[in-house]
């Protein structure tokens, strides 16, 4: 696989409500278009640590700062579904009539929102290590790390509680992101620890997280609030073909979440990645190639 740097084209667009949305465009300009939804926290700087994968898969990957992250203005009170209008405007700006959607971790519900609400534009959807909706009859917190449980309990308690909970974390993320990486790794299974020890992964995540914290915790807290409340769309309305990758050992988005989502989608394939946790970078090239077909 090539490791040659992929040229990154960055820009911003003005949305109809006056907000700004920032994006980064990687891979061949004539590649199959794919809009990528970053995790929580995250930013447009989050991408595959091997920049050669885009050319190898023939895919043009556009990442963006979700509202409240990086250079994208906050949309206070947003639900998961709100992302669809932003992505429709971004796709228009880039000249994408139709495109694939891909989301990882906290980005996965947002990719599904686009597949549901932009059904005439989204060709296929890839979701990796996705959380499931917080619904009656499903134990949303089961199998998660204690820090995840504490974070989502704060979100369930409301905006003031999650803002207070995230305040010290966002300051450390801004000033000492490597320390946050090490703290995260300590709670994760050995396969994730090995991935987070890789220099290319660390450099990419540090860059992405620093950019994610540009506006403080706004984007992060709004994500957490959106995940724990009704998402604003029905998974049954996703008509596009969806492939779900979920790590067997994941303790951030446990496999029960991915299975729950798969059960509610009309046209989904669920793939359990044995012996892996939350960090599934090795599966991204396969996902890109499938989405680009």
Task: Provide a quick synopsis of the model.
The chain is of the alpha/beta class and 293 residues long.
Keywords:
293 residues, alpha/beta, Rossmann fold, 8-stranded mixed beta sheet, 8 strands, 18% strand, globular, disordered N terminus
Strand content: 15-25%
Helical segment count: 11
> What's the end-to-end separation, in Å?
19 Å
- Strands, total number: 8
CATH fold descriptor: Rossmann fold
CATH class wording: Alpha Beta
Decide which structural class fits the backbone.
Answer: alpha/beta
* Morphology call: globular
The secondary-structure element order is EEEHEHEHEHHHHHHEHEH
Topology:
Elements: E1 8-14, E2 20-26, E3 32-37, H1 53-57, E4 59-64, H2 83-94, E5 99-104, H3 108-117, E6 122-128, H4 146-157, H5 159-175, H6 177-187, H7 190-196, H8 199-212, H9 218-228, E7 241-247, H10 255-264, E8 268-273, H11 284-291
Parallel strand pairs: 3-4, 3-5, 5-6, 6-7, 7-8
Antiparallel strand pairs: 1-2, 2-4
Helix pairs in contact: 2-3, 4-5, 4-9, 5-6, 5-9
Written overview of the protein:
This protein has 293 residues and is α/β, with parallel strands linked by helices. The chain has a single domain (8-291), classed as Rossmann fold (3-Layer(aba) Sandwich). It contains eleven helices and eight strands. An eight-stranded mixed sheet has the order 1-2-4-3-5-6-7-8. β3 (32-37), α1 and β4 (59-64) form a beta-alpha-beta unit. The two termini are 19 Å apart. 49% of the residues are buried.
């Amino acid at each position: 696989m090539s490791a040659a740097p992929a040229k990154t084209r960055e820009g911003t667009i003005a949305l109809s409500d006056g907000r700004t949305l920032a994006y980064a465009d990687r891979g061949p300009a004539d590649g199959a278009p794919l809009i990528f939804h970053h995790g929580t926290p995250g930013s447009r700087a989050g991408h595959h640590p091997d920049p050669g994968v885009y050319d190898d898969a023939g895919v043009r990957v556009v990442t963006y700062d979700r509202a409240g992250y990086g250079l994208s203005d906050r949309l206070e009170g947003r639900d998961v579904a709100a992302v669809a209008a932003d992505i429709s405007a971004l796709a228009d700006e880039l000249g994408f009539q139709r495109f694939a959607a891909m989301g990882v971790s906290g980005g996965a519900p947002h990719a599904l929102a686009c597949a549901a609400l932009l059904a005439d534009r989204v060709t296929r959807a890839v979701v990796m290590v996705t959380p499931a909706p917080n619904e009656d009859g499903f134990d949303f917190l089961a199998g998660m790390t204690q820090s995840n449980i504490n974070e989502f309990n704060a979100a369930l308690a409301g905006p003031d509680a999650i803002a207070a909970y995230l305040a010290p974390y966002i300051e450390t993320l801004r000033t000492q992101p490597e320390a946050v990486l090490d703290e995260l790794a300590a709670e994760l299974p050995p396969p994730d620890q090995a991935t987070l020890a890789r220099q290319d992964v660390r450099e990419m995540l540090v860059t992405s997280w620093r950019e994610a914290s540009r506006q403080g915790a706004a984007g992060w807290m709004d994500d957490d609030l959106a995940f724990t409340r009704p998402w604003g769309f029905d998974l049954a309305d996703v008509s596009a073909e969806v492939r779900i990758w979920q790590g067997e050992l994941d303790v951030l988005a446990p496999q029960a979440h991915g299975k729950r989502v798969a059960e509610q989608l009309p046209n989904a394939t669920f793939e359990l990645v044995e012996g892996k946790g939350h960090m599934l970078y090795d599966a991204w090239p396969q996902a890109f190639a499938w989405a680009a077909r």
